[in-house]
Amino acid sequence: MRILLAEDEVDLNRIITQKLVSQGYSVDSCFDGEEAIHSLSLVEYDAVILDIMMPKSDGYTVLRHLRSTGSTTPVLFLTARDAVSDRVKGLDSGANDYLVKPFSFEELMARLRAMMRVSFGVAGNILAVGDLTMDVAAHVVKRGGKEISLSAKEYELLEYMMHNRGVVLSREKIEDHIWNFDYEGGTNVVDVYISYLRKKIDGGHEGKLIHTVRGRGYVLREAGDA
User: Fold this and answer.
1) Above 90 in pLDDT, residue 44?
2) How far is the C-alpha of 8 from the C-alpha of 52, rounded, in Å?
3) Is the pLDDT at 225 greater than 80, yes or no?
4) Which helix (H) or strand (E) is 160 found in, with range?
5) Taking 90 as the threshold, does the pLDDT of residue 200 lie above it?
6) Which CATH number among 3.10.20.310, 1.10.10.10, 3.60.20.10, 3.20.190.10 corresponds to the domain 126-220?
7) Which residue among 85, 87, 132, 144 is least crowded, i.e. fewest CB within 10 A of its CB?
């Protein structure tokens, strides 16, 4: 999943970014509201983490801009303001959640997962397609009850595909959601990682889950799915 982080405290921005990346997220980080608005005009993010008090444009302004485009991307506000009125203002402005500084990173991750579940219409932390399961809290993937070891990027790609079960995803859409602005790899990166996943997910199994739709992209589904 690709996340935008807008936080003007440099050290906190760096630490949050590192934590998100360690959990398998791709992150574009910025330090003021204008940068955030510019990034939002270029990318369809899976979630946004916004500091409220930022230079140039505050978090409320960034959120109003995002919602004015019709976007329903989940947004989590980070702020040092802990008054009930501040929380109400943040939520009424269109934010999905509100976390007061200082906070634990475990709580930040849990709130982020909760927002994602709502966004993708998932009831719990276990995603399943056939006998393939993913525990997004524990970062454990199994097929037929046997645990599968994945790299961070393989895990991220599989999670995105599982959240979009049955949806044909173009190479461009996958690349936009899985790789951030810093990526400088080859043009066939999606094909390469799909190949890695096929070997680990479908290798040795009669029922294949990862399918190529010629001219359109890739889809994760059981053979019997429409």
Assistant:
1) no
2) 10
3) no
4) helix 152-163
5) yes
6) 1.10.10.10
7) 85
